[in-house]
Amino acid sequence: MAGSGDAPGAIRGRCAIVAVGQTEQGEIPGISADELAVEALRLTLRDAGLRKTALDGLITCKSYGGYGIDTTIGRLAGLNPAYSATLDYGTCNFSLHLACAVIGAGLAEVVAIVYGTTQRSQGHRFAAQLGHRDEAAVYGFLNVAGPAAMAFRRHQHLYGTTEEDLGRIAVSQRRYAQGNPNAIFRTPMTLDDYLAQPYLVEPLRRADMCMISDGAACLIVAAEHRAPDVTGKPVHVMGIAQQTGLRDRQNPDQFLRSWITPVAERIYPAAGIEREAVDALYIQDPTSVWVLQMLEHYGFVPYGGVGAAFAAGEIGFGSALPLNTNGGQLSEAYMWGFLHLCEAVRQLRGECGGRQVEGAQVAQYCSTMGFMKAASTILSGSR
Amino acid sequence: MIDESVPFWAAAARRRLAFQKCDDCGFIRWPAAGVCPECLGRAATWTEVAGDGTLWSFAIYHRAYAKTGIPPVPYNVGLVELGCGVRLLTWIVGLPDAQLRVGMPVRVAFHEAGEHGLIPVFEPAGSAGTS
Predict the structure, then answer these.
(1) Is A60 part of a structural domain of the chain?
(2) Partners of B55 in the beta sheet?
(3) Are residues A226 and A277 in the same domain?
(4) Which of A27, A139, A334, B53 has a Cα at 20 to 30 A from A266?
(5) Nearest by CB to A202, which of B56, B62, B65?
(6) What is the CATH classification number for the domain harbouring A279?
(7) Predicted ipTM?
(8) Contact yes or no for A141 and B3 at CB 8 A
(9) In this complex, do B79 and A150 lie within 8 Å of one another by their Cβ atoms?
(10) A77-114: pLDDT as tens digits
(11) Chain B residue with minimum CA distance to A136
């Protein structure tokens, strides 16, 4: 499986994440989304001991309410970078991959990626309709919980998956969150606690859905030769991969999202490692169902095997394959998946205190933009 | 913005299920769109289809995500895979939610839904028709 440096997305040795930072998460009144993004940038620059003039690239992504545009954030932050751009969909992997491409093309050498949102204060709970507007509105197919619930029900039908199997994902992540002071949900939760929760959109419960929060996050990505100027602990980007599912509802299995699997086929050759070399795994989890799907699509467990893998201690809290050690979006905060990558970087730098994964050298982050796009990155603490 | 789906709801008001069929390649598409996602042709004819299908999956809403325009909770939303290949969001009626099963055969019926008028819903195939 391990490939050569010629594999698509094999970018080892070209760029590294040199700094990460985030604001508090939760309800943060009295500040705009763009000001929050700049605050995350300020905190990250400060922690890295970096002057903003060292940045020659800025990548932002749109956030709820029309915020997150590079031209606005650049003005607020007083930046004239050589390169700037805004993505419609951040989910971090896409922003990171663009930064790598920009650095690879020589358009910039030190790129800040920022995302800020006041989605919680703005009262948005992802209640907007998904799919075709009229059809979803007429039948009340609202919130991502709807398609996620359908996907899980279908999975149950195909593989005999139980609600206990699914619950183990949220329970494991809550256990990690108890050791993460930044996490919003830190109350202990057993599998019995999970099962005792009422349904939100049956068969899903509250704990299967993420926590929308206000907050911001920032990553700084540098060309490898510039990384030592910034930090003694660069985290190297070994490989990247993407795949879209833009056909959306014309994809035959729709909410099961099997169009993700080409990312799994590409990412390990891109990074030049085997899947088994991953020490810490991060999977974007606006809903626990997406974790279930990606564990299977990436081959970490066989289809239908997620519950058994958790029960046997093969994956999740206290196992050989730590998963979403920050608590994930289910327990830490939504933040469009940026915090997974912040956590992965901190784990590879050995800075995670009580939840540190001993000897973590390789981390993988798998993310999706709903029913449209998928991406993965493999990072290493050594070059 | 052009709402391409108007003829779909108009057909439902006449108790008919109809979708755009591409004049060039014959692909039947839904959601409605101005372009065929298979051959990119622009010409299409709204064509009546048989209302038989199977229940791909379903979700049961126990929380109301909108203040108006949706049924009281709990209510189900199903995705029905029709014989013509289209997958349609809908309600499954005619049996308690607890008896819904993935893969069950269903067929179209038409129900009054307030401001929306008659809309397509599906009931277990083999039950007495309500349309």
Answers:
(1) yes
(2) B80
(3) no
(4) A334
(5) B62
(6) 3.40.47.10
(7) 0.94
(8) no
(9) yes
(10) 999 999 999 999 877 899 999 999 999 999 999 999 99
(11) B89
